């Protein structure tokens, strides 16, 4: 339920950081700088060749941002690294102050920019729940009332009176998140805290947050790079780019706006793996040297087009029944499928180039990564991995196969299955 | 939508005294938790536990008694005359008060640096930290004080000294309060300045050492007043160093005699309160944006 009451109002907020070394300076440096300034000379503490900043040595992390959040709204904040998301959350949670503008809050804010803030390794789980809860703004009474619920939710009841330094990292996170999930604050701020913990617990947390929000009209601000969790939790999305809001509205449109504002140059078609360091023993016996997507300037395709891949291999021995394996990974890092090539042979000490085609029609629009492995299948049907350069080739699919039908990952999944055929 | 009232406003404008006192009061549970955490964490996995709070000052007291009392033969009186006080009690008052003072200044001065991990992630009234720090330093002080009282009672009961009970004992809480106000004030000033320049942090440990010798911790005031060169300087000396009236008044209260002048005592309070407010001012100015510079 979204009511008309405004819980958070951000009004013309800017945050400016000074570039270069601050804080790391000593009093002596500062005095030298002052002396030079008085004499109108160049700053002696500045690095040689550094750009002359002076008055311009400022960086606007946030540039005149305004928005309102109503009671009960769950807002996802997305944007590339360095876009200003975390700065925004820091300002709202009062960790640091704005350079310009005002933020109005109507209620208590619980900020979870990190799980387990204030946890002390020597204290037991129970003591840390009190500690963490109090730091996040609960009184002892409130924590007492919720203690049972928190322990139950955390799944670590058995260890609740053990010092947390003996906890596994998973247990630690679970306990910490349980405290956060049971806060009575009207506004909750989360910065990718769900990125940790196993998938099951992640889902449990998201469901819990959503339930709490719906039941008690809690307002949630959630920052994540994981679009699936954004879809799961949020009902509104704000996209931030270079310190400004570029989109404010529905979830799917927002995500599309975020994924869409990538430049074409980010989708190159030619890759040279010959000098790349491999993990384990990959690439020792045989390796993939080049991968090239043919007939294209950038790796941007219509969903109904055919991908042409030219792969070059190099080997120190003859390989029979070699094949190329292609794992397709979607934008939320989910492996959605694998394609295996026809067999081919690779000859010793020469470069073998093979061209493959792949029909893209089963993939819906969006961004994907293609991960290639070079394998061979032995006569005993065993698979042997020669090489895995571990670099994803990013491709972008536009225009759906169906005209006039918008394919939404959240509802339809990334794969378009074979048609239902009318008899 | 008509104009709506908001409970909290975060603004870029800076008011001089932005202390969030009401909010700090709402976080009083957190203060106690910090105190408890400090105490528990300090003595976890030690065999002697809180006994360590006693061992250090008692050993220092013995060392002082030996070096300054026996070897150097420095006087242990604050006023000239034939009074005798067990040297253990005399040195214990000094070390006890000074240990609290220096621990508190040191701890409060590192508040922003030590807690930047927490403070960088969550907001709570920052004033909670210095309050909690000075309270958790009070625990070892009180343990020491307890030990002192036991020895004190034993000496009083045997009646072999010229110590006697007096109404001055009522001064004790006031003196401890003054000690807290002064040390928190100084600590906050240093904490605010060191977010940007760490230089001062280096000075704190060294400065404390010097300050100890500048205060009548290991000697009595008679040391100054009886040496002819400095005769008459005692009042000035106590006026300039707010720690002096604290120590001497404390002794006066416990022993029933000693140095006490109204003017230096009031000046001491004046300086303490002055430092405290300057500290608050700098602290509240720093807390808003210190994450950007620390």
Provide the fold topology.
The complex is a heterodimer of chains A (423) and B (294).
Chain A: E1 6-18, H1 27-38, E2 58-70, E3 74-78, H2 85-92, E4 100-105, E5 109-112, H3 125-135, H4 140-154, H5 169-181, E6 187-191, H6 199-216, E7 219-223, H7 227-233, E8 236-241, E9 244-249, H8 251-260, E10 270-272, E11 286-293, E12 300-302, E13 306-315, E14 319-330, E15 335-340, E16 344-346, E17 351-359, E18 366-377, E19 383-387, E20 392-398, H9 409-412
Parallel strand pairs in A: 3-7, 3-8, 5-6, 6-7, 12-20
Antiparallel strand pairs in A: 1-2, 1-4, 8-9, 10-11, 11-13, 13-17, 14-15, 14-16, 14-18, 18-19, 18-20
Helix pairs in contact in A: 3-4, 3-5, 4-5, 5-6
Chain B: E1 8-11, H1 21-26, H2 28-43, H3 51-71, H4 87-109, H5 111-114, H6 116-119, H7 128-158, H8 172-194, H9 199-214, H10 222-226, H11 234-240, H12 243-255, H13 262-287, H14 290-293
Alpha-carbon distance between the termini of chain A?
Answer: 45 Å
Uncertain residue segments of chain A:
49-56
The shape of chain A, in one word, is globular
Number of helices of chain B: 14
Termini Cα gap of chain B: 41 Å
Largest sheet of chain B: none
Q: Specify the CATH architecture of the largest domain in chain A.
A: 3-Layer(aba) Sandwich
CATH topology of the largest domain in chain A: Rossmann fold
Task: Return the structural class of chain A.
Answer: alpha+beta
